[in-house]
């Protein structure tokens, strides 16, 4: 299954948020969407999964226009973890994770052994087994973030889209979540992740798409996108870029000097 978007433009309140954006997602990729605040990352993500409708452009999933996909089939093919998700009902953690199986169930259909197994895999992968019986409303922000990631993983979809999934997590769980997303992209699956931490993006993504002012300004392997000149031009920072254990590390050292 391949997701391909061409010529996407999106306008909100008279302002153009995306300008003629092309994007392609192939199996076994972990694509990091990076860029400054307001670059259009979340808007692009929402367009790709059908939650926002672009003014122009075409999006095709498995060769078929995304608009032609029934909503249930689309939900089963593309799992989504929104930015700053929250829960307002005091459901148990296990029941919240099980909601990820809804796209695969007919109305009033009982959950099957395969669904139970998918829920258990997601719970174990996100290290929330000890929380399974607790009301999700009683958890910390970081714990809730992992629960909602587990719900997205339980969909067991070919594509997973996550908008800042490590925000609010401690460093250990940030690494755990990014490693999990990288592993989940095997078996002909793929993930798209919005990130601000450039070192996490470099270490765990197979490809980076850098947005600025609604345009794609770089698309390629981390080593080609995360260069000092590009970071100075797009983020306005002077950064030290090093390699450790075969992976890039990006260390911002200050604001980039602007020539008079």
Automatic annotation (TrEMBL):
InterPro entries: AAA+_ATPase (IPR003593), ABC_transporter-like_ATP-bd (IPR003439), ABC_transporter-like_CS (IPR017871), P-loop_NTPase (IPR027417). Part of the ABC transporter complex HmuTUV involved in hemin import. Responsible for energy coupling to the transport system. Residues 3-238 form the ABC transporter domain. Signal peptide: none annotated. This is Iron complex transport system ATP-binding protein. The keyword Oxidoreductase does not apply. PROSITE patterns: ABC_TRANSPORTER_1 (PS00211), ABC_TRANSPORTER_2 (PS50893). SUPFAM superfamilies: P-loop containing nucleoside triphosphate hydrolases (SSF52540). Keywords: ATP-binding, Nucleotide-binding, Translocase, Transport. Belongs to the ABC transporter superfamily. It comes from the Bacteria. GO terms for molecular function: ATP binding; ATP hydrolysis activity. It comes from Magnetospirillum fulvum.
